[in-house]
């Protein structure tokens, strides 16, 4: 995500790195579009959890789109981009070059996954309160609030850069003091990485404990197969979501640790290591991992989410056209 690093005159990515970034952007946009299409197209996937997954896919898709645009213009200059008007140039610097959109979409991804986790947490741990607490109006309000917050948290980045008067440099960073970039990096680490990931980890632990207790009780009581199958289905869905969260933790951690290590721009960082070529390679690699997170979620759904896999066949294979249209998605039943 590049954090608060400043672009200098040295090449920041090798050509192959730029090409991988562009490929990640395209792959992420296409994959998440497919997720949206399948869930919205197939009737038996129409439920609260899957709609929230669509919202998460939109966030991932927009993150991948800005990665692709950055690869083409800002980071790698794979195409010659020269805004003709000062207004377009100013927007380019403040939205893309400043990393405002990168931070905003990252925040949207993290907190939309939190919303998915919240829905499952209440359905499993507090099922009697599900219908009362998670009404459609409340969920729409919560999703809207997540998107607003996602654009508010990185708002200071809009004011850390401006068009440059240097003909060889499109944008220039402007920090009136050494403190702002440090604060921005710390706030990003705390509120976009540490806080949502900690909350989700605790929630999934409690869900797993509850589901194991329910399964054990049903097994001892020799309950009906349908009730036991429902608990197993919920366990499978939670397992899939835990895989999504685990991938996010693995693929995001290196990038945020690098940001935390070198909070200021590389030419004025607290460690000389932050301006070295080795650190530049680490940042490039961590950025590739970071972007990969938004690419692999559709792949996780395909391999770990049985209902999505069935829906994919229904949406794209004529031989499954009339199969499963009225089936019940037991994994999503809240009670």
Task: Please write the string of helix (H) and strand (E) elements.
Answer: HHHHHHEEHHHH
Query: If you compute it from the alpha carbons, what radius of gyration comes out, rounded to the nearest whole angstrom?
Result: 22 Å
Principal-axes geometry comes out as: elongated
Q: Helical segment tally?
A: 10
Strand content: under 5%
Instruction: Report, as a whole number of angstroms, the end-to-end distance.
Output: 40 Å
The helix content, as a percent range, equals 55-70%
What is the number of E strands?
Answer: 2
What is the CATH architecture assignment?
Up-down Bundle
CATH fold name: Rhopdopsin 7-helix transmembrane proteins
Note the main sheet.
2 strands, antiparallel
- CATH level 1 name: Mainly Alpha
Q: In order across it, which strands form the biggest sheet?
A: 1-2
The helix-and-strand class reads mainly alpha
**Overall average pLDDT:** 83
| CATH homologous superfamily identity | Rhodopsin 7-helix transmembrane proteins
Please tell me the total number of domains: 1
Low-confidence stretches: 4-13, 323-335
Task: Kindly describe this structure.
There is one protein chain. This protein is an all-alpha fold. It has a single domain (15-332), classed as Rhodopsin 7-helix transmembrane proteins (Rhopdopsin 7-helix transmembrane proteins), CATH 1.20.1070.10. Helix content is 69%, strand content 2%. It has helices at residues 15-41, 48-74, 86-97, 100-125, 130-133, 136-152, 179-220, 225-261, 277-304, 306-316, and strands at residues 161-163, 171-173. A two-stranded antiparallel sheet has the order 1-2. Helix 1 crosses helix 10 (306-316) and helix 7 runs antiparallel to helix 8 (225-261). It is elongated. One of its GO terms (molecular function) is G protein-coupled receptor activity.
